[in-house]
Design a protein that fits this description.
Layout: H1 20-28, H2 32-46, H3 49-59, H4 71-82, H5 84-112, H6 114-123
Helix pairs in contact: 1-2, 4-5, 5-6
Length: about 120
C-alpha cells in the first residue's frame, strides 16, 4: 500500500475549481500556473482532457490538511514521487555526511582530552 505522502490528491485549498490542477502541481512539484496552462492548451486542442479532469475531480481523494509539516517536507516528498532512487541516494549521502561530522566531533573531543581517550580505550 502506498504511503499517504506518495498518493495523488485533489488540492482544494490551492485549487480554483475542483483542485485537480493544484493536485497535479503538488504531486509533481511543477508550478501550478504551468499545469493549468498545459491543461487549458490540451483541453481546448483535444477536448478529452475535460473528461479526465472531471473524472479525477470526482474519483481522487481530497488532500489531507496535515499531509506536510512544512515546505521542506513537501519538497522532499515531491522528490520521492519523481525519483525514489535518487531520493534514497540523497538520504544515504546525508547520513554519511552526518556520520562523518559526528566522527570529527568525537575525534576532536577524544584527542583534546587524554582522560576521555583512556576511558574509551578501556571500554574497547
Amino acid at each position: 500500500m502506498n504511503s499517504p505522502r506518495t498518493r495523488f490528491y485533489r488540492d482544494k485549498v490551492n485549487g480554483k475549481f475542483m483542485g485537480v490542477c493544484a493536485g497535479v502541481a503538488d504531486y509533481t512539484g511543477v508550478d501550478v500556473l504551468w499545469v493549468r496552462l498545459g491543461f487549458l492548451i490540451l483541453a481546448f486542442s483535444m477536448g478529452w482532457p475535460f473528461l479526465v479532469y472531471f473524472a479525477l475531480g470526482i474519483l481522487a481523494p481530497k488532500k489531507p490538511g496535515h499531509l506536510y509539516s512544512d515546505r521542506q517536507e513537501q519538497r522532499f516528498w515531491q522528490g520521492v514521487r519523481q525519483s525514489p532512487a535518487r531520493t534514497a541516494r540523497e538520504v544515504r549521502a546525508q547520513f554519511r555526511d552526518i556520520d562523518r561530522r559526528l566522527a570529527d566531533v568525537e575525534s576532536f573531543y577524544v584527542n583534546s582530552n587524554p582522560r576521555l581517550s583512556a576511558e574509551i580505550e578501556k571500554l574497547r
